[in-house]
Amino acid sequence: xxxxxxxxxxxxxxxxSANGISLSRYANEDITWETxxxxxxxxxxxxxxxxxxxADFFYEYRNNILMTRSYVPVTMGLSAPIRANVGEASSQxxxxxxxxxxxxxxxxxLTARGNFTYATNKYRKFEEPQYTEPYRYKVGNSIxxxxxxxxxxxxxxDYEAYNSPAQPFGEYRGGDIKYLDVNxxxxxxxxxxxxxxxxxxxxxxxxxxxSLGYKSFDCSAFFQGLTNExxxxxxxxxxxxxxQTQLLGAYANSHWSEDNQDVYALWPRLSTTIINNNTQTSxxxxxxxxxxxxxxxxxGYTLPAKLQxxxxxxxxxxxxxxxxxxxxxxxxxxxxxxAGNGLGYPVQRxxxxxxxxxx
Length: 359
Description:
mainly beta; 9-stranded antiparallel β-sheet; two-stranded antiparallel ribbon; 45% strand
């Protein structure tokens, strides 16, 4: 590829130049298609003319996954990564739904539905170096697994920072994050990176809801939720005082300072510049993405048929509903579905009052 950034300058007065050449990838005639073998087993069951159950189990094995070779000696003199069909992975899960419907002679009626999905995956083969620490291997872990450092706490003061295992992320001192020396070699390095948290894609997603009525009244609600998911607060986007970012109230209320040396504060010491030591992927800013949300609820009233005949309508229903009404989550800084960036546009809570009339 013609690359002006690699140009060479010639001539006594250095007035003539020619663009250089850069390689973004190498040809590989051995690259082939990824292949997958899939299995699906399903069952559908009806009971008592009221309950309907559907369940589906799936399993997939993929090989010949195209990956970048993770270990190519620099002595080969290559300027672009090498890719090959070296990966293998598997995934499996179950998808279940249940429906219920019933009418009573007294005028009550009920319909309900729930669904549950569990899906997981893992690497079977992944080219990587021969580590001396077994926890560094990706084989056997989820494709969506994150890796990072274990954060012990914040340094209580400069003295503790200077007398702890060296951390290679630039300047750090009291109030900055202290990382765990996992392999006990007296320094913090890539050898201390371990799998942390759950996968960033939820392994369990579920929902359930109902519609209930009595004569002219009806109500309905729908809940949705997920679990087995982690996310990380986006330090760069929420870092106070940088790129005109304001100090979030949560950070203002809980941060390390000389007057309040809280080693478990939400935010490390404040600074007008980004402290690289505190932006590393670690358990410090890891959060549980589990939540349950009341996504939709509605209450309605339909005029009786006799009254509708007098006003010559075939349907006359008034209702009130709302969406995103309640959220149950351990994460309290902002809406949990916004994940790591609390400065984005939040999920809105909406209320409606309406009237349906048909003549």
